[in-house]
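Write out this protein's structure.
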Amino acid sequence: MTIAPELIAYVLVVYLLAGMVKGVVGLGLPTISLALIAAVFGLKEAMVLLLVPSFITNVWQGVTGGQLLVIMRRIWPMLAVLCATTWFATGIMMRSDAKLLSAGLGVVLIVYAAISLATPQISPPGKREIWMGPIVGFLTGISTGFTGTFVVPGVLYLQALGLGKDGLVQAMGICFTVATLALGLSLNGRGFMPTDLGLLSMAAVIPAIIGMVLGRKVRDKLPEARFRKIFFVALLILGGWILTRSVIL
């Protein structure tokens, strides 16, 4: 496919914005980019555009923090199940109706934003971690394969593990890296990796990284709690708009 210059510019601006959000709160790049790009390109195309910026920025986040091996030993069962489930869910997604998939993305965004705004106290899993990790990996893999979103319920589970602020940010980076890789391999294995979209995905790395750097500077000046509230309210509205648009059009 040939991508119009104005659409290329739109994608680059979206990743600059998404990178800024990630720089401030440690997540949000896949969610923001998928929501805004799916509305213009379609969800499947948005997933492809997501791959390289998400992978590069999350590798950067995942290797920073000094707890890589400790975290991997703790969450590898969740990640293994996530990868396997993503493969099967992507296969179903490729044969599914685009409007239905977009509606699913809208629902995921609404649920994620609503739960995050409610800020529930999630109890540590304790001994249940042995079997809860794979279940969370299964559910997150379904969300990843169907909608390209890997925050629900994975991030909520990681928050419950009591990893500390830096450990949580690093764990999210590790989880998002693995999920992005699993999604990329699944899409490529099924022959859905258009060259133009792949090249644009590579180009989007630059604004995404610039956005992360700017976001970290904003983090020092803007109270994170206030920014998170604004972010999740906007996400709730965006999810509602995507869901409504998918049902009506």
